[in-house]
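Field: COMPLEX_INPUT
Field: COMPONENT_COUNT = two
Field: RESIDUE_TOTAL = 519
Field: MODE = joint
Values follow.
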Amino acid sequence: MTKIISGSELASSLEEKLPGCITASNEVDVWVSPESLLDVCETLKDPEGLDFSYLTSISAVDYIDNFELVYHVLSMRNNYSGVIKCRCSSEGNLRGEPTVSSVTGIWKGADLQEREIWDLMGIKFEGHPNLKRILLWEGFDGHPLRKDYLG
Amino acid sequence: MTGIRTEPITINLGPQHPSTHGVFRLRVTFDGEEIIDAEPVFGYLHRGTEKLAESRNYVQIVTLTDRMDYLASMSNNLAYVRTVEKLADIEVPERAQYIRVISAELQRIASHLMATGFLLNDLGALATPLVYCFRERERILDLFEMLCGARITLSYMRPGGVLQDAPEDFWPSLDSLIGDLPHYFDELESLITSNEIVLARTKNVGLLTDEQAIDSSMSGPNLRASGVKWDLRKADPYEIYDRVKFDVPIGAIGDTYDRYLVRILEMRESVKIIEQCLEQIESGPIRADTPFFIRPAAGEAYAAVEGPKGELGFYMVSDGGVAPYRCKVRAPSFINLTPLRDMLKGWKMGDLIIIFGSIDVVLGEVDR
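Field: COMPLEX_OUTPUT
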């Protein structure tokens, strides 16, 4: 069985290495600040430490007040999985286009998934090598998976 | 021939091309015959499944999942209903779990047969091997028709179980198919596995190392062909997979040939799984007592199954209503395209189709 690393366990091991990166945590989930996302992911992947070498999926959810990115990560060697969340919103304009760091440099598997999130949810990924629309065409107006999108 | 000035040429392969397995476009830049860059372009089949799901109730969404990977509806159904069951905390009766595993494994065989047939088609062995594969697949689709009346868009599973129990005459037909399948595979393998032309065209072609595969989040037979022994049915057993014995075949180096061979070996393992299920299955209820309008408590769940193409997962968020607040699909075909550029670079024009074909993507799932 794949063991699920609890939010509090992840939080304590991340807090040890990167003080101040956690914005909230409970038994199940752990939220990290958008500024420290890149460092957190690097720490997660570190083969000496948690060894989350496999990025299962990135999801984005529109919670009206903010957007939440959910990273499902997996360590195949140790057979355990973890979830990292990151809340982001654009400054000043709640429905603007928030920017977070791209994790493509850490897991290449994020490439197409981040493009999809930009396309459908309108979250920009800084440092992505080729951030353009993927399922819709260039010039499409808006980001359809947002809750305020009127189709 | 020195001194002749040449320049790279960019060619659009698709979206209307018989070997792109759907509507898929590849912008390839060639230097002579050699591929120096490739950019996949897709979205031609985008229907907004995730958005549509937000305005449908939990039972209705089953029909949307059919249309993602339309060669493996059963696996899509299974991944989806498992997520709903996790979200709403629904216990599934044992018989239903067995029927689900049997149908998911049959679906895996059907999907891998298509992959194998089309791989040979892509090699230029037009139609003959494909027809062999279709012959076997036809019998599996007949079984699905017995189960639910449909052959492709099945919608057979429901949160809490399956639509209906298998009819009486399903079981003897399944028995006879299971008896025949190994011979079918032998026949197929005798045509392909040690075929000199196939070997020359696929051995050492389109290499994907294990590190690359893990880094690119590859999953399913593609990942295992690269030598990574990772199968969700073993690593994180769901349904009744912990009660059956089977091997996880892996490839040696991760070339096109390995990706073909792993699928053949997996089909043989699937037959073993079904045989064991048939021994173990007992009579009983096939569906938990769930209301038609399921209202899971506010919360979220991620569940995944080992589909024919790879890890098919759903991430669902509920706000307590009759429809999910968010329904995200982790589509294996989509993510498996991540390393395509690296796999193609440096190969010749003639290898392009076979490398792409060996990844086995279904565009309905890529575009959703």
